[in-house]
Protein 1
Amino acid sequence: MRNLLGSLLAIIGAAATLVSPWQAWYNNRHGSSYKFYEVFGSGVTLSGSGIMDSVFLVFLITAVLAVAGVVLRSRALVGAAGVIAFGFTILWMVRQGQAAGELTVTGANNRGLGSGVAYAFGGGLLMIIGSLMMTGRTRRTVVAEPARTKTADQAMYGTAATTSAPPAITTTAPADKNPVPPAAAPAATPAQTSASAAPTASERTGTERLSKEERQMLGLDEDASAEPKKQN
């Protein structure tokens, strides 16, 4: 908001100074007929001047500086333009008073200072006030990040720095001092043992069907033949 108000005052002041050379400055004489360099030399004379060597050139330069300062938000440029316009007007009034022997405000006979001096004086003052109201550019603070070191491979290939995960740590549980023995298989019962040892009915019937000769050949009747001999 302050920049807006200050810029507006500076533009109004620059416009006022540009209008002032086309108004009466002293004794109904326009400012565009005064040579600007006479202020710094021998003093104000009655000789006329062109547009580009009159006081209009000074105010044209100050107006350009003021507009540039508003666009760039530069308080220094706007303030410099105001000081130049205001200071030149004051200096011209002093030199004009020395040349005329007096310095009065315009009266009924149109003698003395005219409205052109008021425009130049007021325009320079507005530019100075506008520069004081402006806040200028806002400065941005940049926070510097810590520098990152690159490895040789990253510097060679331009790869981004990556962080490697820490190695995984594996832990083994301590061995149990009293290990539990595996469960033993249940012992077989006597009934199961005798049942497995006894021949099946099919095996007995198959043996009984063998003939006597086959039994003798197989040695199955050796025990039966031996028993009568032991009895005799």
Note: The beta strands are 24-26, 29-30.
Protein 2
Amino acid sequence: MRLHVGCAMWTHTPWQGRFLPHPLPPGERLRSYATWCDAVEGNTTFYATPTRNTVESWAGQTTPDFRFVVKLPKSITHERRLTDVDEELRSFLEAIEPLGPRAHALWIQLPGSFAPTDLGTLAGFLRRLPRSHRYAVEVRHRAFFDDARSERLLESVLARVDAEWVPFDTTTFFQSPPTSDAEREAWMKKPRVPRRSSALTDRPIIRYLGRDDTARTIEGWRHWIVTVTEWLREGRSPTVFIHTPDNADALMLARRFHEEVRSGLPELEPLPEPAPIEPAESAEPLTLF
């Protein structure tokens, strides 16, 4: 019984010297992060396909059961909108090959303008993908959440290739106006869609956005604690990514989420113990409150 948890990145300035040793050379940062969490979102690949040497370094810093959910480049999903992308896709798949089993799912995040009328394009793209990988699709067009027929059609397209629908739950974040610069920036950029909590496969993936107030973040994920616990009891193996607008406490919050699920499921395999560091005298204590 495995629950994997992680964050949107494995290196973040507010974590240095607080959660993770500082300084750390680039080739050791992911290794240190992986003592805290056993999954990470591969957001950097959205902006550029990494070199094979870079990906080999990622693999070398993690164990085979570590999970990368790797985002397809925006040139494929946003610029070409899944059409005429064979060369870009081939280059991307070759680059990430060194991850091996660590590439838990290839993440197809679609733009908000990608509508139900585009489902034929998505279906054709998914059919052409190699079956050597798992796939997960994130949509942001409101019709997929508000219109039952559009929802069913998308689920049908995904089910044909055993792909997962990745929800980005921002409902807690949008419950009240922003109170910090990071929250104000996120307010303008993050999708405002209803919560979705149905799994299509045995490996669901959740992205949850809380607030910079850690207590509000924890209160807002109660629904997911229940849902993830149910999935685990059904034999599924979920991956949950915890976000906040500034992500300052995201690393600790991800572990807190895992601990809350495990408190109700003691048989759940625990996370590894974080690598110890000696905090500076002026550093804040490692507490959420």
Note: Strands lie at 4-7, 39-42, 67-71, 103-109, 135-138, 164-165, 168-169, 205-209, 239-243.
Protein 3
Amino acid sequence: MNLTSYVQDRQLTIALRGEIDHHAAREIMQALSAKIDLYLPLRCILDFRDVTFMDSSGIAVVIHTLRRMNTLQGRLLLQNIPPQPYKVLRAAGIEKITEIREECNR
């Protein structure tokens, strides 16, 4: 799993790539926490555009990031989610606890 990030005006955008499964989830959560701790953003955007597969471990990644942002009194936004990860997130009811912006049409 590779990720790319950039910060502008206390908004941290993190583009996730590859598969989010139980093998990658711990590493992803550690990387996300490190980025959030470094930049202390008011808003964190997770961009799923290049995520090729996600299982329930992806839900743990989102919840972990949401909890970290809540401790900073910040917001989490998910965007550009391809159909397969979108189904996993919808099945978990993620849209009830954080904002989802536009699903990718792949």
Note: The two ends are 20 Å apart (CA to CA).
Protein 4
Amino acid sequence: MKQNQQLELSKEKVPLFKFILIGDQSVGKSCIVERFQNEQFSYKTKATIGVEFIKKLVQVDKGLVEIQLWDTAGQEQFRSMIRGFYRGSAAVIIVYSVNQKESFDQLSIWMNEIEQHAHPEIIKVLVGNKCDLPREVEKQEAESFMNNNQFSLFFETSAKTGENVEEAFVQAAKLVLLKYLSSESFRQATRVNKKSADPINIIKSSNDNQSYEGQSPSQQKNSNSSGCC
């Protein structure tokens, strides 16, 4: 049986979590979604009008998690409409472009949106997209912003090459599961598919409960190479 057929058969047995993708226009949010969903890249991606969403199953340790990913428009005129989509979200992925300093400078505005409209325990992931292009934002500057604003994860990605795109969502899903296990308020606030398996059982069945919260990919690699489990 092919892997995608196996995933379809398992679909009713996995938890469903809502993720929201935010950031300025033209930072590549829709291209990230296309890469994540279909492992493809297109130069002809149209600007998102309002919000769009996809669903995808991802492997987290020994279990599966279904991500409902909401791709939001970056234009300011859609901000008021988007605010309602923070409700029930387990994770927020904030995207800037490493070759557009202005998009990085606007992150504080997006942080205000999160603070006002998202659950205080939401998993926050910072993503610097277009790392295949000449940069205007240094990685150290982004890591400093991450640490100062209590992000759980930071990745530099390329929707064009696929670098770190899948990894960002997988690691975010892992932290969502761990937060679901440890926080009653988070469990109440996030929308989990009530017909599916309890995420707690997935966590307990895993042999690898290592948390990467607050680490960049390079720090995660060093943690793995140290032999810590």
Note: The beta strands are 16-23, 51-60, 63-72, 91-97, 123-129, 153-156.
